[in-house]
Amino acid sequence: MKPNQLAEALAAVGEAVESTDLTGAIRLLIAGGSAGLLGGMLDRVTGDCDVIGTEPNDQWPAIEKAAQKVAIRFGLPERWLNQDCRSFAYCLPPGWESRCAAFDRFGPLEVCTLSRIDLIASKVVSSAKRPQDIEDLKAIRPSPSELDFAEDNLDRLERESLDGKIYEIERTILKSLRESP
Questions:
Q1: What is the largest distance, in Å, between two alpha-carbon atoms of the chain?
Q2: pLDDT of 29-44, one tens digit each?
Q3: DSSP for the chain?
Q4: Alpha-carbon span 70 to 8, nearest angstrom
Q5: Distances (CA, A) of 39 to 1, 7, 21, 83, 144
């Protein structure tokens, strides 16, 4: 999906949720490449949309059901909208939820994306295992202060690690980003 197709699919999810008996606003927090696409930081395509959280949290089943209907309508994979990345939320810098940026509102669905700084930090953490994230970081062109923020997050993750994980590869990637013109 391109950014406009992703936004159309999310709008359709909002319409589908609106036609149910759910009441109140639902905040959908988008991470990964989709956050970069919707936030205008990346210009590429994506095959899915990573949801790092919903508020209220108990609304996910209704959103997932609506997304499956949208998948059929738009010819998307059944799990194009998924929460697979939720298990990695601990890798995000503290306070990330409060920094999420509002993208748009579709009926009761308020779509928000990771902030630029949190997206950069998350992509640095995952870059050792995901070459696409290195390419995304190059495209985003983080500033020195944004790279410092990402490095501070790596420091925190190492301090909090129960198994002594060291982010050596990620630090090498950070160094190469700092040296890029």
A1: 53
A2: 999 999 999 999 999 9
A3: --HHHHHHHHHHHHHHHHTSS--S-EEEEEEHHHHHHHTTS--S--S-EEEEEEESGGGHHHHHHHHHHHHHHHT--TTSEE-GGGGGGGGSPTTHHHHPEEEEEETTEEEEE--HHHHHHHHHHHTTT-HHHHHHHHHH---HHHHHHHHHHHHHHHHH-SS----HHHHHHHHHHHH--
A4: 10
A5: 15, 11, 30, 19, 20
Whole-model pTM: value is 0.95
β pairing state of 81-82 and 49-55: parallel
Work out the angle between the directed axes of helices 3-18 and 60-74 (0-180°, nearest 10).
120
